[in-house]
Amino acid sequence: MNTPVLRRLLLPTALACVLALGSACGDPGEAAPVPQVSAAQEDSAEITIRGVAFAPAEIQVEAGTEVRWMNEDSVDHTVTSGIQRKQGVPGVEEDKPPRPDGVFDERLPKQGDVFTFTFDEPGTFAYYCDVHAGMTGEITVAER
C-alpha cells in the first residue's frame, strides 16, 4: 500500500486515539473538546428527502462540494433551484407563481432516486420541491 493511502486510512484512527487519551488525562470535571466536522470541510454533503421534507433543510458547504439528494419517500419529488410558489388565500390573496432560477431542476419520482450537483460558485442557493408546497431548502456556499 502506498504512503498517501496509509495516511488517509491511519490518520483518522490516530487522531481518535490521541483525543481519547487526552480526555482520559484531563481534569475529570472538564469535558474534552469534540472536533466538529461540517460539510464545509468535506468534498461532499448529503440531503435526505424523507417525510415530505429535506433533511437537513439548510447546509453550508465550500465551493467545489458535491451535494447529493436522495429520495427516501415513496412519492414523487423535485429538487428545483429558486423560490417556491406561495399559495394564496382564496378570495383574499392570489397565488404567487414559482420562480425557478435554472441552476438545477431534477425530478426524483421514486424511492431510491438520487440527484447530485456540484456547487462551484460561492453564494446562497434556495431550492424547493415543485410537487409539495412548503418543502424548501437552502445551501450556502463559501469560498474554498
Write a concise keyword list for the protein shown above.
5-stranded mixed sheet, 4-stranded mixed sheet, 144 residues, 1 helix, globular, alpha+beta, Immunoglobulin-like, single chain, disordered N terminus
Q: Your description of this structure?
A:
16% of the residues lie in helices and 39% in strands. The longest helix has 23 residues, at 3-25. It is built from one helix and nine strands; from the N terminus they run H-E-E-E-E-E-E-E-E-E. The protein has one domain: Sandwich (Immunoglobulin-like). It has 144 residues and is an alpha+beta fold.
Uncertain parts: 1-40
> What structural class do helix, strand and pairing data support?
alpha+beta
The number of domains: 1
Chain oligomer state: single chain
End-to-end separation in angstroms reads 30 Å
Biggest β-sheet: strands ordered side by side in the sheet: 3-9-8-5-6
- Portion in strands: 35-45%
CATH class: Mainly Beta
List the helices and strands in order: HEEEEEEEEE
Query: Would you tell me the overall average pLDDT?
Result: 80
Count of DSSP H/I helices: 1
List the helices and strands and how they pair.
Blueprint: H1 3-25, E1 44-49, E2 54-55, E3 58-62, E4 65-71, E5 77-83, E6 99-108, E7 114-119, E8 123-128, E9 136-142
Parallel strand pairs: 1-4, 3-9
Antiparallel strand pairs: 1-2, 4-7, 5-6, 5-8, 8-9
